[in-house]
Amino acid sequence: MVTNSFITRREQNETSFRPVPLQQILCRRRSAFWRGEDGSATIEFALWLPILAGLVMLATDATLLMHEQTYLSQVSRDAARMVAVGDKTVEEAQSFAVTRLGTDKTYTVSVVEDDDFVVASVSVPFSDVIIFSGPFSGSAELTGDVSMWIESSGENVGESS
Rounded to 5 degrees, what angle do the CA atoms 105, 142, 110 make? Predict the structure, then answer.
């Protein structure tokens, strides 16, 4: 029986153990870290999140301002209409507007009768309306103005001479 006493190179590599220095291990991991794409979506999300949050806040404030502008115009129109058709006096219309607006914000109400017109104006500071950008609004005000022609009392309507 013949025994083969020599070991092939492949067998020698598998059986021998050579310790790898720590610096070489760390160098491999560092280069693998920079080449890898794990977590890249998280980084992109973290970069875009403040921009998206700012857009949502801006849209919310703009929506609140538009809603409040519509409400101010509606209250102004109702107050001016009451005076224009003769249902209420200027003071009563102004009191109606103040009551309808409530006390949760700082409203300024003005109803003025001038010659043949009634002008109703309601305003509120931006900082009372918006949520997120209040400190940046300064002293700006949101206003709803309405002018109406005072209608005749109806006594002379349809009469001819």
Answer: 75
Tokens at 156, concatenated: 């002379």
CB atoms within 10 A of CB 150: 16
Model confidence at 13: pLDDT above 90? no
pLDDT of 97 > 70? The answer is: yes
Tell me, what's the pLDDT at 144?
95
The DSSP letter of residue 127 is H
Structure tokens at 154: 């109806």
- Residues with Cβ < 8 Å from 21, sequence gap 6 or more? none
Let me know: does 145 contact 123? Beta carbons within 8 Å. Answer: no
- What pLDDT was estimated at residue 58? 93
Cβ atoms of 151 and 85 within 8 Å: the answer is yes
Strand positions, DSSP E, the chain: 108-114, 117-125, 141-149
Tokens read off for 111: 């109803």
Contact by Cβ (8 Å): 109, 124? no
The overall longest dimension of the chain from CA atoms, in Å, is: 148
Mean pLDDT of all residues in 69-80: 96
> Which residue type sits at 34?
W
